[in-house]
Amino acid sequence: MQLSIRDLTFAYSGGEPIFEHLNLNLDTGWRLGLIGRNGRGKTTLLRLMTGRMSFEGAIDLPLEAAYFPYEVPDASLPALEVLRLAAPGAQEWQILREWKLLGVGEEALERPFSTLSRGEQTKALLSALFAREDAYPLIDEPTNHLDAHGRELVARYLRRKDGFLLVSHDRTFLNGCVDHVLALNRSDAWVMQGDYDAWQERFDRQNAWEEARNEDLRRDIARLEESARRAARWSDRCEKGKFHVSPSETAAVDRGYIGARSAAMMKRSTSTLRRRERAVEEKRGLLHNVERVGELKLTVLRHPKETLVRVEDGAVRYGGRTVCEGLRFDIRRGDRVALTGPNGAGKSSVLKALCGAGGALEGKVSIASGLVVSYVPQEAEDLCGDMRDFIRQSGLDETLFKAILRNMDMSRDHFERDLSEWSQGQKKKLLLARSLCTPAHLYVWDEPLNYIDVLSRRQVEELILRYAPTLLVVEHDARFLETVVTRAAIRLEMTP
Q1: For labeling, which of 77, 106, 485, 487 is most exposed (least CB within 10 Å)?
Q2: pLDDT tens digits for 51-95?
Q3: 365 vs 309: CA distance, rounded Å
C-alpha cells in the first residue's frame, strides 16, 4: 500500500512555512526512518498525518494513523487499562503478546501506569501501538527515555515488524531497525533504501558536491553583481546626461535629440540591469540544499590538580532517602567518562549532587579546590520566557551564545519567540549552548543529545575531539560514546 503526500503546504500561525508543495510517495510496508535537523518538521509531519492539524494539499493514507507517544488521559489507571484505551479494537491477547516481546514483566500490568518507569511506559505504549492491526504506526523518538539495553531491545523488536514511520536521532538505533530513510533537507526531501549509515555516506557525498557547486555559484553571483553595479552606474550617467550639456554645445545640439538618445540608452541600461539582477536571483535560488555544519567552540580551563573528583564509598540521598550507594570513582584532568547503568539506578541523581543541583553526595568525597563545573541538565521541557532573560540570568556572552546556536542551525527568528514555543530539540540545544559558553574545568552533561538531530550530534562529537574537555556524561547514544569516551565507564547498579 502507498502513502501519498501531494502538494503539502503548512505553516504555524505567524511563522515561516514548514512545508511548501511537498510531494512524496512512500510504501507503508517499509521500516522507514525519518531524519532531519531540529525544526524541519518531523514531528509536525507525523501530526499532520494523524489529521490533528489543518493544511493545504493532500495526505492519502490507506490506514488509520496511530501516533506514539499516546497521550495517556489518566495515568492513575492500571497499565493494562491504559493500553486497552491506546489500542482500540485490539484484543487483550494481542496486547499481551507485544508486551512480552518487549520484555516487560506481567506484574506491571496491574500497577498504576504512573508508577511504571519512563522506560517501561515507553515499552508499554509501543506494545499497544503494534497490537493494532488496523493502523499505520507513527513513532516519534521512542528512545529518549530508554537506557542502552532498552534501546537495543526495542531496535530488535522493531526489526521484526513491517510498516512504520519512525523519527529518531540515535544512529545506532536507526541502523538496527530501518530499511529506508526519509530525509527532510533544507529545501527538499528525499527517500533512499538502506539504514542510517547508508544515508550518511550519500549525504556527505552530496553535501561535498553541493558545496563545490555552490562555491562556483557564489563566484558567478559576485561577478554578476559587479556587472549589475556597472550597469546601474551607466544608467545614472545616461540620466544625468540629458541635463548636462555644455554652453558651447547649446546652440549646435538639439535637446530633443539628446533626450531621445538618453532615453534609448536608459532603456538599454535598465534592461541590462534587470537581466543581471534576474541572473543573480536565479543563481541564488540554486544555493539551496547545503547543510552548513558550523564549527562549535569551547573554552576549557586547566586545573592545576591532576585528580578533579574522587569518591569512595559514596552515596546520594534526597530527603533522607538513599537513591544510590557504594559509589567509587575518580575523574582525572582530561578524562572523558560515561556514567552508565539501567533506568532508575540514580545516574541523574549522581550528576545533580556532584554539581550542587540537588541531593547530597555523602561518603569520602574529594573535589579539587576552585573547581568550575558546567552542567547540562536532562530536562528541558519547562523552559519558557524571553531568550534575552535566559541569557542575562545565565550570565552569558550574548554574541557568542547566539553564534553557537546559529552554528547548530537555529534560525534568528527563533531568538524572538518565547522559549515555550521551541521544540524539545531546540530547548536542549539552548542548554547545551549555555554550557559551551561557560569556561570550565569539568563538564557534566546529563543526556545532552536527547531530541538533538544527527548533524548536531556529529558537531558535538567533533567539538569534544578538538578541545578535549574533561567530561562526565550520561548518554545512551552508543555511537557518541564510542567516539568520545576515553576511559572505562562508571557503572551504577540498581539499589535493592
Answers
A1: 106
A2: 989 999 999 999 999 999 999 999 999 999 999 999 998 999 999
A3: 8
Give the whole-number percent of the chain exceeding pLDDT 90. Answer: 59
Beta 135-140 vs 164-167: how paired, if at all?
parallel
Beta-carbon contacts of residue 413 (< 8 Å; ≥ 6 apart): 15, 16
Q: Running DSSP on this structure, what letter comes out for residue 146?
A: -
> For residue 137, what are the β-bridge partners?
66
Among candidates 322, 332, 379, which has minimal Cα distance to 353?
322
Label residue 495 by pLDDT band (50, 70, 90). low
Grid cell at residue 200: 550518511
Mean pLDDT of 182-197: 91
The CA-atom distances, in angstroms, between 445 and each of 106, 254, 392, 424, 475 are: 34, 81, 22, 17, 8
Question: Please, what is the angle between helix 118-131 and helix 79-86, to 10°?
Answer: 40
Please name the residues in contact with 197: beta carbons below 8 A apart, sequence gap of 6 or more: 171, 175
